[in-house]
Design goal:
16% of the residues lie in helices and 27% in strands. The protein has 436 residues and is of the alpha+beta class.
């Protein structure tokens, strides 16, 4: 576990509660919302306080030179990520030096600052990576137990395989979207009554899932699994993740295979990728695994998780301001039973090839108490315990016009490394006019 250099500060004024301190420096892809410079194309940047530092400018000025580059005058981060860990480390150290309080190269150069620094409020964030493939795990013991208790047998809530391997399904990479994208309520087959045929209808039980996801940084070769002792080297960083779910569509369609249309309509991520280097000081252990996993899943490191605070807020359509959002839950990444290294190793144990930019969702992250449950399905306990919002309205699931906001941060010794947020507003379903 790396230590925190509390003496490291930036020449940029950064609020103490900012997610984007000089200890963070997450990567994203942005463009200027208003084209004032003639350079309104997508390129790479890092978040610092309320600003975005344009890495393509640093590269052009010769201040950020990496082997095999240039990498940052690009519409995705894939080329940079694919270049490897040596470049990741060098880039982070170089950017941190340029932004430090002692920096004269950038700190004393107002002309360069004008070209390279933008207010986050003045830019548009885009999907940071091209996502070749997306997999969603089911790695929270508390979440799996809650769902099993609701829909199966409370005494046998977990299926026999759950504690033996990280269970997952392969999702749709084509509908991975960036925070701020509106969510059109999905439609599909529902089965309101066991005794009648299904109907076609807009989803009536739209839900969020509080998750994180990791971005694959290095591929493997087909037929060659990634050993658990090498798995960290294949992970570039993490994002917040809302895996929107249509519970009533899912209930009817998932037998006998698994999620399909109930999960393919929107998988929403935060725009900033937090690197593993930034998260090192916040490492912690996963919960005790009993039984001990099979040999290929045994991680010899004891600090194979991260202490990351997570929360979900709901802002109804008629809310007076963002400040009136209701906090629905507060959870933590450290509750996950299966680690990211175990997930990646198990994903490839059959010989499956993963690629740079592949996204691996954690699965819903629920904790041990009701206020830490990571979905409306659990919070309102399958609509039997509706949640009262700050404005007096109640919710069992997400309604049209609602905005769901997820946030996450790690904090230690006064240093905060945050993810920003992932935010999505639900729009009404499309008006289908089918005729028999």
């Amino acid at each position: 576990m790396s230590t925190i250099d509390k003496n490291l500060t930036s020449f940029i004024n950064i609020a103490s509660d900012s997610d984007f301190s000089i200890h963070n420096l997450p990567y994203g892809i942005f463009s200027e919302t208003e084209d004032t410079t003639g350079n309104n194309k997508r390129r790479a940047g890092v978040a610092i306080g309320e600003h975005v530092l344009d890495l393509s400018v640093l590269e052009t000025e010769g201040l950020l030179t990496l082997e095999g580059g240039p990498y940052f005058d690009q519409p995705t981060l894939n080329p940079f990520i694919e270049s490897g860990r040596d470049n990741w480390t060098k880039a982070r150290k170089t950017i941190q030096t340029l932004l430090s309080a002692n920096s004269k190269t950038l700190g004393d150069n107002q002309e360069l600052q004008q070209k390279a620094l933008f207010k986050q409020a003045d830019v548009t964030m885009h999907l940071p990576v091209r996502v070749p493939g997306y997999t969603d795990f089911y790695s929270s013991k508390e979440h799996a137990t809650n769902v099993g208790t609701m829909f199966r047998d409370p005494d046998n809530a977990l299926l026999p395989n759950w504690k033996e391997m990280p269970v997952a399904y392969n999702g749709r990479a084509s509908t991975v979207i960036v925070s701020g994208t509106d969510i059109v309520r999905p439609s599909g087959q529902l089965k309101p009554s066991p005794d009648e045929r299904p109907i076609f209808s807009p989803c009536k039980r739209l839900d969020f899932e509080l998750e994180t996801a990791f971005i694959v940084g290095q591929p493997n070769k087909i037929g060659q699994p990634i050993a658990i002792e090498n798995a960290w080297d294949h992970i570039f960083g993490m994002v917040l993740f809302n895996d929107w779910s249509a519970r009533d569509i899912q209930k009817w369609e998932y037998v006998p295979l698994g999620p399909f249309n109930a999960k393919t309509f929107a998988s929403e991520i935060s725009p900033w990728i937090i690197t593993l280097d930034a998260l090192q000081p916040f490492r912690t252990s996963t919960p005790t695994q009993d039984p001990q996993p099979l040999a290929y899943l045994r991680d010899k490191t004891t600090d194979n998780s991260f202490d990351i605070n997570l929360s979900v807020e709901l802002l109804p359509a008629n809310a007076a301001s963002t400040d009136s959002a209701t906090v629905l839950c507060e959870s933590n990444f450290k509750y996950l039973y299966w680690s990211m290294t175990q997930q990646l190793t198990h994903h490839t144990i059959s010989g499956c090839k993963v690629e740079v930019g592949d996204m691996m969702g954690s699965g819903t992250i629920s904790g041990p108490t009701p206020d830490t449950f990571g979905s409306m399905l659990e919070l309102a306990w399958n609509a039997t315990k509706p949640i009262t919002l700050n404005n007096g309205e109640t919710r069992s699931f997400i309604e049209d016009g609602d905005t769901v906001i997820m946030k996450g941060y790690a904090k230690k010794d006064g240093v905060r490394v945050g993810f920003g947020e992932v935010r999505g507003t639900v729009l009404p379903a499309l008006d289908f006019n089918f005729s028999d």
